[in-house]
């Protein structure tokens, strides 16, 4: 690149070079082959790909980027921040392991690792500059705002003129309350908190996740090689949308009333609840990801088998058979705990757990008559 200069990276001489642009070059060298016959090969010179870490700044509504690089010596991996390494090699030496010494960017773009854009600083100086340039909001200004406290059912408990006062009067950490109010969670110490003075109770069913969740189980979609045209044709088995599908009905899962609902399409919905333990966090309702029991057929090929969903009650997790639940709730009641009674599929497709595709057999051959 224009006016690009290269230098050896200390302790990696002969292996890598670093440029004043923050690019890393892997040098050609003889590499031993890890094979029974041994041997070696000569690797080619190439530019290494940097690892990009992206975080979102809610104040500026922009992404914050940071670049990293992994270097290898004697089969040991060493992880470095690219701007720190560039400043160290081209500007001045400092303790790379000292986390209090930071490298910042004049143009605030972490992707621009050219030496002319790098500044040695501290976390205090970075925060102060961020507040002055309105790229961050000081916790002092946040803590001075009024806040409303709600109980676990969403009922209004108290109003406070500031988060300072809320922390002082309740004995809770005011900064933790501020984190919840700013969107880093929903609850603290078993209570909901919301900025401002509110008279109405919270509607718990309207509380959603802080981060958007994908409406498709992409991992299972790829594993099953499922294809669909648009969102309206997403198969139930990989559909994670909270919106009900056409004709979909929901009933409470036996043994999990108030915790989970099961639909006639074989989807499982975890209802919003407060988790157990010291943190007592709020978990908004969501569609559970379906698990598939893959097994090998007679030809040794992996094929999809039964479908399950993970459910929990009183801290105990269990994998529950989805077709058994669907048949019990939407076709006919039976002894769901009897393992001799099994559910089969009319079309032979174990992934089609819609109620109309299920039939029940006792043991292997005896048929249980349906009403």
From TrEMBL:
It comes from the Bacteria. InterPro entries: His-Me_finger_sf, NUMOD4, WH-like_DNA-bd_sf. Residues 4-48, 248-281 form the NUMOD4 domain. Signal peptide: none annotated. Pfam families: NUMOD4 (PF07463). This is NUMOD4 domain-containing protein. The lineage of its organism: Bacteria, Pseudomonadati, Bacteroidota, Cytophagia, Cytophagales.
């Amino acid at each position: 690149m224009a006016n690009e200069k290269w230098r050896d990276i200390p302790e990696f001489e002969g292996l890598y070079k670093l440029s004043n642009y923050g690019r890393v070059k892997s040098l050609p060298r003889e590499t031993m082959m890890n094979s029974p016959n041994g041997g070696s090969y000569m690797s080619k010179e190439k530019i290494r790909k940097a690892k990009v870490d992206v975080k979102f700044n809610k104040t500026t509504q922009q992404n914050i980027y940071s670049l990293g690089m992994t270097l290898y010596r004697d089969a040991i991996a060493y992880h470095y921040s690219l701007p720190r390494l560039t400043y160290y090699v081209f500007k001045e030496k400092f303790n790379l392991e000292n986390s209090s010494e930071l490298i910042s960017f004049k143009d605030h773009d972490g992707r621009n690792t050219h030496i002319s854009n790098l500044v040695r600083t501290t976390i205090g100086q970075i925060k102060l500059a961020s507040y002055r340039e309105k790229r961050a909001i000081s916790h002092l200004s946040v803590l001075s705002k009024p806040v409303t406290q709600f109980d676990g059912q969403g009922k209004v408990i108290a109003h406070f003129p500031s988060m300072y006062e809320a922390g002082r009067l309740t004995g809770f950490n005011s900064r933790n309350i501020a984190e919840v109010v700013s969107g880093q969670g929903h609850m603290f110490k078993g209570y909901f908190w919301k900025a401002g003075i509110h008279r109405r109770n919270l509607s718990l069913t309207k509380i959603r996740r802080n981060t958007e969740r994908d409406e498709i189980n992409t991992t299972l979609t790829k594993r099953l090689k499922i294809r669909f045209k648009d969102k309206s044709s997403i198969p139930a088995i990989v559909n994670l949308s909270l919106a009900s599908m056409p004709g979909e009905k929901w009933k409470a899962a036996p043994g999990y009333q108030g915790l989970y609902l099961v639909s006639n399409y074989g989807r499982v919905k975890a209802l919003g609840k407060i988790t157990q333990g010291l943190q007592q966090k709020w978990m908004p309702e969501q569609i559970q990801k379906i698990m598939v029991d893959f097994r090998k057929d007679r030809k040794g090929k992996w094929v999809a088998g039964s479908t399950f969903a993970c459910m929990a009650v009183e801290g105990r997790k269990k994998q529950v058979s989805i077709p058994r639940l669907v048949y019990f709730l939407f076709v006919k009641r039976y002894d769901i705990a009897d393992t001799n009674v099994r559910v089969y599929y009319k079309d032979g497709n174990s992934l089609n757990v819609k109620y109309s595709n299920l039939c029940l057999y006792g043991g292997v051959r005896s048929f249980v008559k349906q009403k």
